[in-house]
Amino acid sequence: MIEITNLSKTFTLHNQGGVVIPVMQGANVSVGAGECVGLIGASGAGKSTLMRLVYGNYLAAGGQILVDGLDVTQAEPREILALRRDRLGYVSQFLRVVPRVPTLDVVAEPLLSVGVDPETARIRARTLLSRLNIPERLWSLSPTSFSGGEQQRVNIARGFAHEYPAMLLDEPTASLDAGNRETVLSLIEEAKARGAAIIGIFHDEAARDRVCDRQINVSDFTPEAAA
Ligand SMILES: Nc1ncnc2c1ncn2[C@@H]1O[C@H](COP(=O)(O)OP(=O)(O)OP(=O)(O)O)[C@@H](O)[C@H]1O
């Protein structure tokens, strides 16, 4: 489902004389349906960079990233947008939303955008918000005024609303209490059970050991010159 082959990445510092910094070289990662692969490696090793490359936020210097058959490194912007809408989910640590949209609609939106009927979408959104302990009195309000932890849980509910065949998870259990952490781990297990291919970054080692089938040390892809 996700096939990364010989991937490399450089950053060009345009405001510092155009210095080119190689940060990744020869990265190979393969994630099958129903599998979760955890990215490990020291701070600065390139875990976030690899996720951003897969999501199409960064341009690769070389190599290939196939997500459900689409090569993200070569794809047109409209193809990337369609991939993100239908097949590739991304759960970051932080919620970014349009102001004044009620929480229930924020969570239902990914389903509506793939053509799920509004009633079904709202039922799924309600189920997820309940499971993540967002009190019902908050569902009609915009999450912009919510606490950090509430926003994070709304973000997770939104990220798991549509059953994407491929998912990227960036610290999904960070700073959650035990009960909500357990819910998120269950959501990940359920996604795997329905066949999702997942790449995740988890500093929470116990969480990583529980949901990841394999771990990949991104330091192995650090270019010689930069190591
Ligand atoms: N936009 C950028 N411009 C220049 N260099 C960058 C940029 N983003 C990341 N880097 C560099 O790429 C390398 C990998 O960074 P990255 O954020 O992917 O590491 P990480 O493994 O996710 O670290 P952490 O665990 O601390 O989040 C670092 O050396 C970093 O300085």
UniProtKB/TrEMBL annotation:
UniProt name for this protein: Phosphonate C-P lyase system protein PhnL
Family to which the UniProt record says this protein belongs: Belongs to the ABC transporter superfamily.
Coiled coil: none
PANTHER family membership: ALPHA-D-RIBOSE 1-METHYLPHOSPHONATE 5-TRIPHOSPHATE SYNTHASE SUBUNIT PHNL, LIPOPROTEIN-RELEASING SYSTEM ATP-BINDING PROTEIN LOLD
Domain ABC transporter: from-to ranges: 2-226
Keyword Nucleotide-binding carried by entry: yes
Keyword Lyase: yes
